Amino acid sequence: MVDETTRQIVTVVAGHSLRLALGLLSSALLARGLGPDGLSLFSVIGATALIGRTVADFGLSQSGVRQISADLATCPPQARRTYSAFAWLKLTGSVLITALTLLLAGPLAGVVNAPSDSGPFLIRLATLGVLAAGLGGVVSTPLQALRRFRVLVLTETASIVVIIGLVGVLLFTGALDVPSALVVGAVAALVTACFNFLALPRDWRQAAAMRTGPLQNASRALLAFGGWLWVSSMLSILLSQLDLLLLNRLMDAGTVGLYALALNLAVKADFFRLALHTVLLPLVSGHSSAAAFRQYARHSFARGAVLAGVLVSVTPLIRPFVLAVYGPAYAPSIPILYGLLGVVLLDLLTWPILLLAFPMNIPRWMVAADVVRVVVLFALGRALIPGLGVYGAVAAKLCATVAGALVLGGVIARRLGHDSAVAPAAPGNAP
Q1: Which end of the chain is more exposed for a tag (fewer CB within 10 A), N or C?
Q2: Whole-angstrom distance, CA of residue 22 vs CA of residue 160
Q3: Res 9 pLDDT > 80
Q4: Residue 189 has pLDDT above 70, yes or no
C-alpha cells in the first residue's frame, strides 16, 4: 500500500509536471518573441528580481513552514499564533525591500550590467513582481505547513496559465518585449496570491489579520532560525544565478542567451527536487528523534533515487524537443543543458537528506555550506569561463554543488550517529 507521504509526492510531482509542460510553452513563446539578446536581458533582470525576492523574504518562508509544522505536531492552536507573527513579519519585510529597491534601481542596473537607458526602469518593473511574490508567500506558507498540496498545485497551475495567455496575446499583437514580460510575471504572482488566500481555512485567514508585534516569542523564534536561513537563501539564490551573471560579464550577449535558455530548462527539470522539498519540509519538521530522522533519511533517499531515474529516462527527448520548440538557433544550448542536468540529478539525490538540517536546528552549517558553494563557483567560474566558455560555468557549478553537499551532509551524518546531538525545533511561543 502506498503511504500518505508518497501520495502527496505523486500529487505534487504531477502538478509540477503539468506546470513544467506549461512553463516550457511559456518560455518558448518568450524565447521566440524576445530573441537571444532580449532573452539575455530578461534573464539578467529576472535574476536580479529573484535576488530581491530572497532578500525580502528574510528566510521567513522556510522558517515559517518549519515552525508552524512543529507547532502543529505539538500544539495546533499555537500554530495559528505563529502564523500571525509570520504574516506580519513577511509583509513588513516585503514592503521595506520593495521601497528600497525602487530607490536604488539606478545603481542596481549598473551592478548587473543592464543598459544604462532602460535598466533602472526594468528593475523597477521587476520590483512589482517582488512585492506580489511577497504577498503570495504570506498565504502559501501556511498551506504548505498544513500540507494542502492539491491547493498549491492548482493555484500554481492557474498562475502559469495566466502567464501563457498574456504572453500569447502580447506575442500575437506584436507588443511582447522585456517590460511587458516583467509585468506579466507580476500579474501572475498576484493571481496566485489571491487564489491561495481564498483557499486558506477561515480561522487561518483570521489569524493572518490578527494584530501582532515583532517582539512576541513566536516572532523571535521565526527570526532566530529565519535569520540564518535568510543568509543561506541569499547565498543559494546567488549560487543559482552567479554563473549567468559571470557569463554576462565575460561573454557576448548571444552566448549568454544560449546559456540562459539551458539554465531555464535545467531549473524547470529541477521540479522533482522542488516537489520533494514542498512535501518533505513540513514532514521532517514534525520529527524530533534521531531514530525518526534515520528512518526519514532512508525513505527519502529511496524516493529521490526513483525520481532521478525517471529524469534520466527522458533525457533522449531533449534534443528533438529543443529543436522543435525553440528552433535551430538554440541548438548550441543542448550540450549545455546536458551538463546542467548533472547538477539537477545531484541535488535530487542529496536534498532530501540535507533537509534534516531544519529539525536538527543547525542553520549555521547550512550557511557554511552555501558559503563554500558560492566561493567555489565564483573562483572556478572566473578561472574556467575565459578558456572554456559556457562549459567552464557548467563545471564550476557542478563542483560547487558537490562541495556544499559534502560540508552539510558530513555534519548531518555525524549527528545521526549521536542521539544527544539532535536539537529539534523549539515551540514558537511559550505556553
Answers
A1: N
A2: 7
A3: no
A4: yes
Instruction: Single out the residue of 351, 425, 429 nearest to residue 63, CA to CA.
Output: 425
- Return mean pLDDT, the chain: 82
Give the C-alpha separation, 255 to 263, whole Å. Answer: 12
State which amino acid sits at residue 191: V
pLDDT at 428: 46
What does the pLDDT average to over 30-39? 80
- Are 40 and 248 in contact, with CB atoms under 8 Å apart? yes
The number of helix segments (H) and strand segments (E) in the chain equals: 16, 0
Which three cell numbers mark 328? Answer: 535551430
Which residues lie closer than 8 Å to 19 by C-beta, 6 or more apart? 153, 156, 157, 160, 271
Residue 373's alpha-carbon distances to 56, 175, 298, 377, in angstroms, are 22, 40, 25, 6
Grid cell 542529496 in the structure block, residue: 350
How many CB atoms within 10 Å of residue 214? Answer: 12
DSSP for 76-136?
HHHHHHHHHHHHHHHHHHHHHHHHHHHHTHHHHHHHTT--TTTHHHHHHHHHHHHHHHHHH
The answer to whether 105 touches 120, Cβ cutoff 8 Å, is: yes
The span from the CA of 45 to the CA of 182, in Å, is 9
Q: Which triple of cell numbers denotes residue 282?
A: 513540513
CA-to-CA separations, 241 to 259, 264, 297, 348, 349, in angstroms, rounded: 11, 11, 29, 19, 21
* φ, ψ of residue 110 in degrees (nearest 5): -70, -35
* Placement of cell 508585534 in the chain: 213
The letter for the amino acid at 81 is: R
Structure confidence at residue 400 as a pLDDT band (50, 70, 90) = very high
What pLDDT digit, counting tens, does each position of 405-430 carry? 999 989 988 887 765 545 544 444 43
Provide the pLDDT for residue 399.
93
Rounded-to-integer distance, Cα 431 and Cα 77, Å: 11
